[in-house]
Write a structure and sequence with these properties.
The protein folds into three domains: 86 residues, Arc Repressor Mutant, subunit A (Orthogonal Bundle), CATH 1.10.10; 205 residues, 2-Layer Sandwich (BirA Bifunctional Protein, domain 2); 44 residues, SH3 type barrels. 35% of the residues lie in helices and 25% in strands. It contains eleven helices and 14 strands. Strand 3, helix 7 and strand 4 form a beta-alpha-beta unit. Helix 3 packs across helix 5 and helix 8 packs antiparallel against helix 10. The longest helix has 20 residues. The radius of gyration is 22 Å and the shape is elongated.
Length: 353
């Protein structure tokens, strides 16, 4: 491994796996995470000496990692003779916070964190080609060039929402690629329900709605060699703690968890729930159990049995959405009663409750 590759990993990797392969020891991110776990588990103050012994580092090293945590936004009180006391954590998607209590074996166990980036999907595709571990995620507090389906701009103020890309290496052929969008959709609606109690639904092909307004979107990109998928990058954007009403261009069509609940939602808890649900769905896909993913997706479908209008290039199709197929196509019963298989398009609901 060349020097530039080592430097890139040190700057961007928030999991210790690669760094231990390079120099066989823990890196700064590992120690920050370990110190934070000890602070959280302590019933009150924990001495620097105690932390140093548990981690086999110097007390000066403990102080250095505590200072790094403070710079990340953790409120930590230092008291001579007592040690350190964790007072509060920042409202940020810091890897150590995400991994604390995350009940997965692979999903989200390798985290690349950015305060700001152009696009998490762009970074994720580069990492996928370099062979990052399966289930790695790229998380950003803000995107300057975030985009959704059909290259639409994704509006998201800093440190308010979830902006994430998940990197997968599924054992599937290209015709099965929509199953990965399905598993992400299901993970989001289930995660929202578990965290907030809100009922979210899936709008074909890749949006999440609450009370007839868009709450989240998914952008799936992949690379394939011959008849097998090489990697999949699933970009996820969720409106969590901001009010879309402050943005004229989306106020009538979008909502957020904050707006629906009337209170802030823990982004960390929501992200953990989503990752845990994604791992369950990913296991089904790798076992070849596509039918279970498919049936669950249709149960959460917002559009099934609804009058819809679908625009695709220069054509407009109207009818009633019957169901969605495993390949992602929509069965549409047209105005003459015939079933048409719609491969892609921009769907709008013609009837609102």
């Amino acid at each position: 491994m060349v020097k530039s590759e080592k430097l890139w990993l040190k700057n961007h990797l928030c999991d210790g796996r690669y760094m231990r392969k390079i120099d066989n020891k823990m890196n700064t991110a590992d120690y920050n995470e370990a110190v934070l776990k000890l602070l959280k588990k302590a019933n009150g103050y924990i001495s620097g000496e105690n932390i140093a012994k548990k981690l086999n580092i110097s007390r000066a090293g403990v102080w250095k990692h505590v200072e790094k945590l403070k710079k990340e936004g953790f409120s930590i009180k230092s008291s001579p003779g007592k040690g350190y006391l964790l007072l509060s954590a920042p409202d940020k998607l810091i890897p150590a916070e995400i991994k604390d209590g995350l009940a997965t074996s692979t999903m989200g166990q390798t985290i690349y964190y950015y305060k700001e980036t152009e696009s998490t999907n762009l970074i994720a595709k580069k990492l996928a080609m370099e062979g990052t571990p399966d289930g790695s995620i790229v998380v950003a507090e803000e995107q300057t060039k975030g985009r959704g389906r059909l290259a639409r701009k994704w509006i998201s103020p800093s440190c308010k929402n979830i902006l994430m890309s998940v990197i997968l290496f599924p054992k599937i052929q290209p015709p099965r690629i929509f199953s990965t969008t399905m598993l992400a959709s299901l993970a989001i609606v289930k995660g929202i329900e578990q965290t907030t109690g809100l009922k979210a639904m899936i709008k074909w092909p890749n949006d999440i709605y609450i009370n007839w307004k868009k709450t989240a979107g998914i952008l799936t990109e992949f690379n394939a060699q011959q008849d097998m998928v090489s990697y999949v990058v699933i970009g996820i954007g969720i409106n969590v703690n901001f009010d879309p009403a402050t943005y004229p261009e989306i106020k009538d069509i979008s909502t957020s968890l904050f707006k629906e609940l009337g209170q802030k939602v823990s982004r960390v808890n929501l992200l953990q729930s989503i990752l845990e649900e994604m791992e369950k769905g990913y296991l089904l896909i790798n076992q070849g159990n596509f039918s279970e993913i498919h049936s669950q997706w249709n149960r959460y479908s917002l559009v099934n049995n609804m009058p819809v209008e679908i625009r695709s290039f220069d054509t407009v199709e109207k009818g009633v959405a019957e169901s969605v197929n495993l390949d992602g196509s929509l069965n549409l019963r047209d105005q003459q009663g015939k079933i048409k298989k719609i491969i892609c398009g921009d769907l709008s609901l013609r009837f609102r409750r």
